[in-house]
Design brief:
Blueprint lengths: L4 H6 L5 E4 L3 H11 L4 E4 L4 H6 L6 H4 L2 H12 L16 E5 L5 E6 L9 H20 L1
Parallel strand pairs: 1-2
Antiparallel strand pairs: 3-4
């Protein structure tokens, strides 16, 4: 999403990352990554429940594509250390307009399941247009 930072800012959007990690753990992780996103801690997982994101089994935690990625890391001499405290908790991608209406709701079925960036940006553009249109009315 970083390649769209300028467009998102120009349209007065913001990327928020919501994690069930503690605020302290999340801050350390966010500082290490250095992304310009809004980082929000939700240790009680209220947003996860409201948006339909749930815990899943081993097949979702380690699908073949993810396992292959871990193998490649190991072959390069690196070791994967999970940042999450609960690998079974799935995430998702959601786009809201300024009124709180969803223009994209994508609940991940596995750890490596994400919507195409083009779909996320299309939903963002719809949200930005709806907001602009509402502000002009």
């Amino acid at each position: 999403m970083r390649e769209f930072d300028q467009e998102i800012a120009t349209r007065h959007g913001r990327i928020a990352v919501v994690s069930f990690a503690s605020p302290e753990h999340l801050k350390a992780f966010a500082d290490r990554l250095g992304h310009p996103f809004l980082w929000l801690a939700d240790p009680k997982r209220s947003s996860y429940q409201r948006l339909g994101s749930r815990r899943r089994g081993l097949g979702a935690i380690a699908p073949p594509r993810a396992i292959w990625g871990y193998v490649r890391l190991i072959m390069r001499g690196r070791i994967w250390r999970p940042e999450q405290l609960d690998l079974a908790q799935m995430g998702g991608d959601f786009v809201f307009d300024r009124e709180g209406h969803l223009t994209l709701s994508y609940v991940s079925a596995s750890s490596d399941d994400r919507p195409p960036v083009g779909s996320v940006m299309a939903a963002f553009r719809r949200a930005a247009s709806a907001t602009t249109g509402a502000a002009e009315a």
